[in-house]
Amino acid sequence: MSDVQTIEIMQGILARHAKQEGPLLPILHSVQAEYGFIPVDVVQIIADHLNITRAEVHGVISFYHDFRDAPAGKHIIKICRAEACQSVGANALSDRALEKLGVEWGGTTANSSVTIEAVYCLGLCACGPAAMVDGKVVGRVDGAKLDKLLAEAGA
Amino acid sequence: MKIYIPLDSAAKAVGADDVADAILLEANTRGLDIEVIRNGTRGMIWLEPLVEIETESGRVGYGIVDVADVPALLDGKLESLGVVEDLDWMKGQTRLTFQRCGITDPLSLTDYEAHGGLTGLRNAIAMTPAGIVEEVTNSGLRGRGGAGFPTGIKWNTVLGAQADQKYIVCNADEGDSGTFADRMIMEGDPFTLIEGMIIAGLAVEATQGYVYLRSEYPDAIDIMEKAVVLARAAGILGADVLGSGRAFDMEIRVGAGAYVCGEETSLLNSLEGKRGVVRAKPPLPALEGFLGKPTVVNNVISLATVPVVMEKGAAHYADFGLGRSKGTMPIQIAGNVKFGGLYETAFGLPLGDLIDKIAGGTLSGRPVKAVQVGGPLGAYMPRSKFDTPFAYEEFDGQGGLIGHAGVVVFDDSTDMLGMARFAMEFCAVESCGKCTPCRIGAVRGVETIDRIGKGDTDAIELLEDLCETMKDGSLCALGGFTPFPVMSALQNFPDDFATKKEAAE
């Protein structure tokens, strides 16, 4: 069962979205901003609040790439795998990153410092290959720049 | 002294923030009186960060500016590109939708109005809803999101529908590789999108709007949210739009990383807080859209173009273009090109001119092998089709589509079998799962292409058959259009599929 603190936090979040039409996505974004992931405890609270089933909430969480059910690493690095970036070497860059980190897409390094994710287009198609580190965009990424980003993230 | 440094994501991604900081610091040390304005981008992404200094003869540009160049820049010793407006890239364009982008401070309403903003809305307020719809219909504006459906006809359906509540939904979930016009206009001139949505609201008698904006664009989300707050404070949004007595308000809604939500019915489900699975049509969203109410779903560029249509008139807009492709199109040149960026021009320019002249060929200096137009679901065009004019029907006639008008260039080192495989893989990852041809077809597509890669020629026929099934049997464009890149790669670059076989043997 959810503890008192969780209930309090969730009441705050749900109140913030009370006036929105179709508020489930904004609620989930807020929950993830609060916890870094969607804790299993909050699913029932959201379901009760919106008068939908727990399965429906779970179905939405699992449908979207953005929502995670476990904490990510300290830094989230996303590398664009879309065609425009591929045309200027994104595949080699992805291989290099995965190899250096020793993980697969979506994986987190053993020291929990970096989670690496594939992203399909950051809209930086004319200055690729592109990446995003904790929400900050980076363009014209080459091997050296990538190594620097990984090192700064503590990988 | 006024110095302009873009705040556009593409400029930031290559160091614009650092350059802005360095200029402020250096100016402070020197005791210089300067004003730094963060403008949108001009669209010359290959020159970013592009710094402009206001002079008597116009805004003089410097690019690519690095932090180390800042002292020389302020000394007046850095080599300039000349007046930005006079550069070939800028002079060759017809900028209607992007008339202000790169020129103004995106969040300054004063700037916006000084450069023609709100004129279209004021004209619309003086007209009847039917009159606005007629004007937009006469402009020939078609959906800039890909399908090319006439905007005025869609609006007319919503206007004719009877309901207590109607909605305007802006599809800002453009997730197609090679397309960044939506992002650029939202970051560089957000009020034009807001103005377009209000005009749409007045036209169909809708009082609430949503921008469904993809989470991959955090900077665009930030700017749009700020712009909405500013517009509301200025009385442009709200219960009494510019004192007209009519109401329109809007909200920025953030997606959650699902490509398929760029499809309008998936988007509506997502907006309602459901899984972003497609809905079967009919009913059309124009009649039963968001929460079952009549809804206009338009792409960002379509809506952002409405203000200029209402400002300058339908005839002015319709005067540009080719055949049934009227007006201008913001073409996004990307990938392996020397000069990548956004180039707005009237429809009809031959594809080859775009690639060889405007884009300057490949960045790698190797020959162009293929050009993918219209995003991940667009066809790969070989050089033999470079005389195709850039317009809806003309591209369709060549087995392609212009989609969002994203153009991605590949050099001769590209393995087209690999690109075909990627298209299927992408469809498998992003399929919403509702219809079988897309959900299962894409997975089998990857396997079949792998078989071809290993030298199994029988699998080519199977792939063709599978593509036929996906094209005819899928509910939406994701499954239905994935065959475009796959089949065009196979048909136009058969060697890439055959050499694999020989190598395997």
TrEMBL record, chain A:
Domain of life the protein comes from: Bacteria
EC number: 1.12.1.3
Matches recorded under SUPFAM superfamilies: Thioredoxin-like
Keywords linked to the UniProt accession: 2Fe-2S, Iron, Iron-sulfur, Metal-binding, Oxidoreductase
Molecular functions (GO terms): 2 iron, 2 sulfur cluster binding; hydrogen dehydrogenase (NADP+) activity; metal ion binding
Coiled coil: none
Cofactor section: [2Fe-2S] cluster
Note on cofactor: Binds 1 [2Fe-2S] cluster.
Main EC class the enzyme belongs to: oxidoreductase
InterPro entries for the chain: NADP_DH_HndA-like (IPR028431), NuoE-like (IPR002023), NuoE_N (IPR041921), Thioredoxin-like_sf (IPR036249)
Binding site for [2Fe-2S] cluster: C80, C85, C121, C125
Record family assignment: Belongs to the complex I 24 kDa subunit family.
Family annotation (NCBIfam families): PRK05988.1
Protein's name in the database: NADP-reducing hydrogenase subunit HndA
Species assigned in the record: Octadecabacter temperatus
UniProtKB/TrEMBL annotation, chain B:
GO MF terms held by the record: 4 iron, 4 sulfur cluster binding; FMN binding; hydrogen dehydrogenase (NADP+) activity; metal ion binding; NADH dehydrogenase (ubiquinone) activity
Group of enzyme by EC: oxidoreductase
Enzyme Commission number(s): 1.12.1.3
One Pfam match: Complex1_51K
Listed cofactors: FMN; [4Fe-4S] cluster
Endpoints of the signal sequence: none
CDD domains noted in UniProt: TRX_Fd_FDH_beta
InterPro entries per record: NADH-UbQ_OxRdtase_51kDa_CS, Nuo51_FMN-bd, Nuo51_FMN-bd_sf, Nuop51_4Fe4S-bd, Nuop51_4Fe4S-bd_sf
Swiss-Prot/TrEMBL keywords: 4Fe-4S, Iron, Iron-sulfur, Metal-binding, Oxidoreductase
SMART domains in UniProt: NADH_4Fe-4S
Family assignment from sequence similarity: Belongs to the complex I 51 kDa subunit family.
Name of the protein this chain belongs to: NADP-reducing hydrogenase subunit HndC
Organism: Octadecabacter temperatus
